[in-house]
Specification:
The chain has 15 helices and 21 strands. The radius of gyration is 24 Å and the shape is globular. The longest helix has 18 residues. It has about 500 residues and is an alpha+beta fold. The strands form 7 sheets. A 5-stranded mixed β-sheet has the order 16-15-17-12-18, with helices on one face. α7 runs antiparallel to α9 and α13 runs antiparallel to α14. A hairpin with a 2-residue loop joins β13 and β14. The model has no long low-confidence stretch (mean pLDDT about 95). Helix content is about 25%, strand content about 20%.
Length: about 500
């Protein structure tokens, strides 16, 4: 990854990110593999040979897979599964996804995990937790330490660590069979350009650059037959958050008008260099979420309509003085849109949006502060509009909750985790709660219909483009990679699904 020097052994599988996840993912394994790029597929049992959820999704039973051994030779059991999830009760700081475990138990080879709330919308976060060895971790002085020795059930074990690279070697006693890739050399580069050049020269075989600069010339064209840049859609999107608590976005007519002039196709082609697809559904959902689009909105697509947008404004009491838009209070309409300097794709994106909104007679001030300042302003609601992203998930819940949910709502000036636009709608919050917690599928569908209707009619934010899980790899040495023909998992090596890919790769003869 382009994360700079590997400064230390940050191998705690619950507290790592970026490069260190790439080091821990081939070592620790989850109970199941969740396919984030094809939500129609059921989770693939992994360390659990069987997974059984309760009707209310407040508990789940995991049957421990037979024949699995830890890298130190000890048998893997249901006790290890229960111990891992119990860690989130005893040490909440390890529960970064806030799954809210309340207790665990073991009966033979079955571990039961119980939760405070329904996990219907968080099944993927539950199933992808890395499982650790009870006989090792219960002896640790501090399970929240970053430097914990790598030892798991996975196909690899640590061979060498340095600040330049981490070397993992394949186990010959792995329960899934010895992997085709015998050694993994994990390197970190200073920036995207250096890493992309290394991919193009063949010095790197697998990487994760979310927005490759000049990917065609620097990488793909170096070996068109083998060099791949796969960017499958997930439930994540690039989102234009609107500060609905303040002018001018506190007026739904203005939000609708802006939504109608934003050119999503241009954003995808220019700002994102053609590697993503634009959002086309009026529901805002990305391609991976097509199955969640309710019948009412199927086939209804976004389109640029400047004249239609102007009519919505004038019908709502807006007027014009020359080419300037005047709001119902008699004030000239303007707003600021911002992203951090250096986020070149997003900087281009907000510049495009500014030009498009100016066609409505609106003054748009483009700002690119440093990342720390921008993040603080976003969290505290001190902005007009921003480009951001939303979490992915295995349902439509995270997409809408991140933007519309009152459980995240904070006054301007107080830090918010999500709902940065301070969208306040009790009806939306109630529908989201119903969707997440009901055991009645009919009620859940009704809640989804209400949620999507609110989104379309009230425009709490503007969904721009698919935010794919992009990765780069080549097929010169190994085949079996996920791709459009076989999208069995995300290609991203910074996820714990990485082990699924390593298990499926075959050496080229």
């Amino acid at each position: 990854m382009p994360n700079g020097t590997i400064s230390s052994k940050q191998f705690n599988p619950f507290l790592t990110s970026g490069m260190t996840v790439i080091a821990t993912a081939p070592v620790y394994e989850p109970v199941a593999i969740v396919n984030a790029v094809d939500l129609s597929k059921d989770p693939e049992p992994w360390l659990a040979s069987n997974i059984e959820w309760s009707d209310d999704y407040k508990s789940v039973k995991f049957t421990a897979r037979d024949g699995v051994k830890w890298a130190d030779g000890e048998d893997f059991t249901a006790e290890d599964i229960a111990y891992t999830y119990q860690l989130f009760v005893d040490h909440p700081e390890l529960d970064l996804n806030a799954i809210g475990v309340t207790g665990t138990s073991v009966d033979g080879n079955v571990a039961t995990v119980e939760f405070e709330k329904s996990m219907f919308v968080k099944t993927s976060q539950v199933l992808t937790k890395p499982i650790v060895a009870k006989h090792v971790w219960e002896k640790l002085d501090d399970v929240t330490a970053l430097d914990i020795d790598l030892m798991g059930t996975g196909p690899y074990k640590l061979k060498q660590f340095s600040t330049e690279a981490v070397t993992l070697e394949a186990r010959d006693d792995y329960w899934g069979g010895t992997p085709a890739v015998k050694t993994l050399y994990l390197q970190s580069f200073n920036d995207n350009t250096m890493l992309l050049n290394a991919l193009g020269s063949g010095d790197v075989d697998w990487a994760q650059i979310s927005q490759p600069p000049n990917v065609e010339t620097a990488y793909i064209n170096k070996d068109k037959e083998h060099n791949k840049n796969w960017a499958p859609s997930t439930m994540g999107v690039d989102m234009m958050y609107l500060n609905t608590a303040e002018k001018p976005f506190n007026n739904v007519a203005f939000r609708k008008a802006v939504n109608m002039v934003v050119d999503r196709a241009k954003h995808a082609q220019i700002a994102r260099e053609g590697i993503v697809d634009p959002i086309t559904s009026v529901t805002g959902l990305p391609t991976a979420g097509n199955t969640f689009i309710i019948d009412k909105y199927k086939g209804q697509e976004t389109k640029v309509d400047v004249n239609g947008a102007k009519k919505i404004l004038t019908d709502a009491g807006y007027s014009y003085q020359g080419d300037k838009l005047i709001d119902p209070d008699g004030e000239v309409v303007s707003f600021e849109i911002s992203v951090p300097q250096g986020w070149t794709d997003y900087v281009t994106g907000i510049s495009l949006i500014a030009d498009e909104v100016k066609e409505l007679g609106v003054d748009v001030n483009v700002k690119t502060p440093d990342s720390d300042t921008w993040t603080e302003n976003v969290n505290n609601g001190k902005f007009g509009a921003i480009l951001h992203w939303i979490d992915t998930g295995n349902t439509a819940y995270d997409f809408y909750s991140d933007v519309m949910d009152g459980r995240w709502l904070k006054p301007v000036g107080e830090a918010a985790s999500y709902n940065f636009g301070r969208y306040d709608n009790e009806q939306a919050t109630e529908a989201l709660n119903t969707y997440a917690n009901t055991t009645d599928e009919t009620e859940r569908q009704k809640a989804l219909e209400e949620i999507e209707t609110i989104w379309v009619e009230d425009v709490p934010a503007i969904s721009l483009g698919n935010r794919p899980d992009t990765a780069q790899y080549n097929t010169r040495k190994f085949t079996g990679w996920p791709d459009d023909d076989n999208p069995y998992v995300s290609p991203n090596p910074t996820l714990y699904t990485m082990v699924s890919i390593l298990a499926k790769l075959k050496a080229v003869k």
